[in-house]
Write a structure and sequence with these properties.
- By secondary structure, the protein is α/β, with parallel strands linked by helices.
- It has one domain: Rossmann fold.
- Helix content is about 45%, strand content about 15%.
- It contains seven helices and five strands.
- A five-stranded parallel beta sheet has the order 3-2-1-4-5, with helices on both faces.
- Helix 1 packs parallel to helix 3 and helix 4 runs parallel beside helix 5.
- The longest helix is centred in the C-terminal third of the chain and has 13 residues.
- It starts with a strand and ends in an 11-residue tail after the last helix.
- The model has no long low-confidence stretch (mean pLDDT about 95).
Length: about 140
């Protein structure tokens, strides 16, 4: 079953996300990919995959992905954010991570967690049904 995966990275973390995505390209090709604008453009070029690009994060892309979460249209978020360099749109970043917690959405914020999430048999075999809160 195809999942919708969002790929997001802050500027200093974009190279890490590209490297990670290249390492997991075979698995990623099985899913619908969405991304914030700049990150999505870089990933399209590097991976040669179809990726739906929203606006750049600071211009509303984080919020567009947040809307997917709230509407139940996203299955997981891979968000390599930079905890050492605060972004001007830091409130949007916190809101996006908050929505992941509210809606019990799997989120990976670093390479190790992203590796474990994407290679989990529960993810690969669709053996996991997350509980979506009835709010």
């Amino acid at each position: 079953m195809q999942k919708t995966i969002a790929l997001v990275a802050h500027d200093h973390k974009k190279p890490d996300l590209v490297k990670w995505s290249l390492a997991h390209k075979t698995e990623l090709t099985k899913h619908k990919l969405v991304a914030t604008g700049t990150t999505g453009g870089i990933l399209q070029k590097e991976l040669d995959l179809d990726i739906h690009c929203f606006k750049s994060g600071p211009l509303g892309g984080d919020q567009q992905i947040g809307a997917l979460i709230a509407e139940g249209k996203l299955d997981c978020l891979i968000f390599f954010w930079d905890p050492l360099n605060p972004a001007p749109h830091d409130p949007d970043v916190k809101a996006l991570l908050r929505l992941c917690s509210v809606w019990n959405l799997p989120v990976a914020c670093n390479v190790s967690t992203a590796d474990m999430l994407l290679t989990s048999p529960l993810f690969i075999n669709n053996d996991y049904q997350r509980d979506i809160p009835d709010l």
